Amino acid sequence: MPAETPVRNAVIIGGNRIPFARAHGKYAKASNQDMLTSALNGLVARYGLQGERIGTVAAGAVLKHSKNFNLSRESVLGTPLDPATPAFDVQMACATGMEAIGSLANKVKLGQIESGIGGGVDSISDAPLVVTDELRAILMEANRARSVGQRLKALAKIRPGHLAPQAPGVNEPRTGLSMGEHMAITAHQWGITRQEQDELALASHKNLAKAYDEGFFDDLVTPFKGLTRDNNMRADSSLEKLGKLSPVFGKDLGDQATMTAANSTPLTDGAATVLLGSEEWADAHDLPKLANFVDYEEGAVDFVDGAEGLLMAPAYAAARMLTRNGLTFEDFEYFEIHEAFASTVLAQMKAWESEEFCREKLGLDAPLGSIDRTKLNVAGSSLAAGHPFAATGGRIVATLAKQLHGKPGKLGFISVCAAGGLGITAIIEGR
Amino acid sequence: MTPAATSFEEPRRIRTPKLSRLYLGAALDAARNTISSSGNLRVLPQAPVLASHPGITLEQVEQYRALFGGEVFDGVHRRSLPSVLVHIAAFPVQMALMSQDDFPLQLMGMVHLSNQVEHHQPIGAEEALQILARAENLRAHRRGTQVDIVVEIFSADVDVTADGGTQPLWSSVSTYLNRGTYLAGKPDRNDEQGPAFVPPTKTASWKLGTDAGRAYAAVSGDYNPIHVSSLGAKALGMPSAIVHGMYSAGRMLEGREPEQAGHRWSIHFEAPVTLPATVAFAAEEVDDHTIRFTGWNPRKVRRHFTGELII
User: Are A145 and A210 contacting, i.e. CB atoms less than 8 angstroms apart?
Assistant: First the structure.
């Protein structure tokens, strides 16, 4: 073996997603597999991949039925892709899409695959309901029974209270707090105001609407079930309208509660995909090369007893990733910071500006510095588009790659926080 | 806490009783007292009680784990029993002590004020034990009479009555209040209110359903009516069933006790948690060895308990 095998570029060729829909609306009757298949079909059509054997397809969903144990593979089989295309499922909460895409980029870089499709899907409207643990234990006991008598004896234990179906929890299992409640604590600790959050939310809607109006999403989004644009978007919103809303999270902070339904992402259904490949593969198929997927970093924080905020992992991942690549914020043209909540973006940015945080928590000599707002989420982000958990990574990578296309060497920064104190940051480079 | 003191009388050896029978006896006793209003004794029984325990079964360990959703108890990486499960094993002995005819306070309606535990050595499942319980320190409280029940747990093979005493594996002081009975007189009137409660930053939220008392009862065997039924609770002066104090203790400690033991912790109960409830909870690191816990009602901003774990 040679002492050092040079890695090659992983090229982002393009992306396709379906418009994101507010939960229990337009996509109420679409399953995760329906939406992922549709997003893949759009990608296949756009890049002429019919009959093509792709190296690997990696995607996932955060809220997943057990019957969807092979969601990605089953979706691939529903597309015109070569049925010999392998696929695997990824699950890393809201960072699922980023992890799927990042791991595929690594495979391309190492020469293991020539092409890959990464992404994700989520549905709140078609979320799995499960029976209570008590009822499940009784049914399993009945299932194991060897005689009718034993079975009846087991089933006789069922009580009315066991029958209520259980919706998937949105609370952190180890704290019992919802993500919004966790974020309210972090926002309060960082002194983030209602005003800044509403301004960020408004900018997200304005930027997304502008991008749609300019046709930016024409080759990134394929209509689905009669929807052509993300239906959470409110182009006509205003600070006055946003200012009228009552807080929904952190209500025990009283008059210091700042998080409303508008500066928090709504529950949404949708799917997104990204096509990656080697330069050779892209050239051989006469496909565009929008950007390189340069690097990504996973992070996690100790949030259980509140030592760090639940959604602050990207703050740590960014520091390691930038140090490894010898970069500072000055080197980036665009920043995509996933708007789980407006305050998530603001807390991360405040942390990077804080000398104390960067020294004590990140081990840096100097703060990472501030981010120019004119470079932040310039085509809108999750507050406006919505956030079907696993689909957000695909939306962000495709959007940023397109922004950087035609700007060779210019860099884009990505930050995505996730449940469980997880997070991912990534770097992509225009070409 | 002192090791098994030898100044006490020879312990009275008892068989670990069934809690249900004790509660029945206590209820009858309460009824009798109401009728005859007989004068109570004013001294604590001198003799401790001593019971053998065959060991906490793996099945009980699993039930306890299921209750709090803790990590798997595999007997290898996690084998030291949680302190509260040890308390559960010893609780019937405490109750037996307090149910004796010569115990001066009525068992029914007794309020648990606080608990302090020193967990000296790890205790494993299926490990035979001896449980020694005695009553101490009958004293006045502004709302009645309080008493400490001291429990010490030894392995089955030591002589707990040996001269000089033996270091227990685990020991606790549970303080109870009997409301409205002033056997030790009334304390000097003390109107001093503590500083107003300012809740710390919460780190967790406990959603407790109406069945939280029954769920702990199923694991602990402690079917005290005040915890398991709304009617039972009303009969004992509570608006609805309240969760066991030691449920809060177990939940506050879950996943935080060291495997090699050698730690101590305490919990002080304030407003009872009436079910169903949402309890706001905070675990705050005081220093490298100390975690402070607070549980409170986030709506009424009333404190349910404070606790501390020192490792």
Answer: no
